[in-house]
Design brief:
By secondary structure, this protein is of the alpha/beta class. It has 5 helices and 10 strands; from the N terminus they run ββααβαββαβαββββ. It has an 8-stranded mixed sheet with strand order 5-4-3-6-1-7-10-9. A two-stranded antiparallel sheet has the order 2-8. Strand 3 (43-49), helix 3 (50-61) and strand 4 form a beta-alpha-beta unit. It is globular, with a radius of gyration of 16 Å. The two termini are 18 Å apart. It binds NADP nicotinamide-adenine-dinucleotide phosphate.
Length: 184
């Protein structure tokens, strides 16, 4: 089992614009053409920060619109926030804050022999990295630059560097890069 950061990024290292838009991403291709369908089958637990959760509420669940959709993940999801956020009916959500390590232990138990998916954002993934809990980074690098936005991973991981294990073209829209993260 691994703790994986699976995400899409612009070529210049942003996972969303400054105002949390992902419009740039959806023009680039369909996630079903990527490794995502195989990846998600192996996921046993998810973690995300509050901006990502609120993006999901707005754009996927469409909370409060009268045309609500179901939460897309069957696996339990841990949402990190210092605030009190609305839940989603039928979703296995745990709202947590602070140190990632005790949360990781609970996620580990829930995931069993499957993987933990760190959905984002980058600073939360950085907290898992700081705790020595990040094993792999899988990035769909989109064929755009954004100039500014929400960072992919605001940490310096350089000595030793990441280890590139795979590089693959996904149509004209993406390059999928996989890295093992060195143990600290
Ligand atoms: N390109 C992609 O594939 C992709 C993937 C994932 C996400 N995204 C997008 O990227 C953006 C990421 O936003 P973001 O950079 O703001 O990151 P985020 O992790 O989604 O949200 C950050 C917020 O999470 C809360 N948080 C983080 N760590 C915490 C901790 N240890 N304890 C308590 N709360 C904690 C804090 O908010 P509060 O305490 O104020 O609640 C913090 O401001 C979103 O727009 C998301 O939709 C894109």
């Amino acid at each position: 089992m691994k703790t994986q950061y699976y995400t899409a990024s612009s070529l210049d290292g942003f996972i969303a614009t400054e105002d949390h838009s992902l419009e740039w991403l959806f023009q680039l291709g369909n996630s079903n053409d990527t490794s995502y369908p195989a990846f998600i089958k192996e996921v046993g637990a998810l973690a995300m920060g509050s901006s990502t959760y609120q993006w999901m509420l707005h754009h996927v669940v469409k909370a409060g619109t009268g045309a609500e959709e179901a939460w897309p993940y069957a696996q339990p999801t841990w949402v990190f926030s210092s605030r009190s956020l609305p839940s989603v009916s039928g979703a296995l959500l745990h709202f947590v804050k602070g140190n990632v390590r005790p949360v990781y232990e609970r996620m580990r138990q829930a995931a069993g022999d499957r993987n933990i998916w760190l959905v984002g954002g980058g600073e939360l993934v950085g907290q898992f990295y700081d705790a020595g809990l990040l094993d792999e980074i899988i990035v769909q690098v989109g064929s755009v630059t954004l100039g500014a936005g929400k960072p992919l991973l605001p940490r310096r991981i350089a000595f030793p560097p990441l280890s590139l294990t795979s590089a693959r073209t996904v149509g004209p829209g993406f390059a999928e890069l996989r890295y093992d993260v060195p143990r600290k």
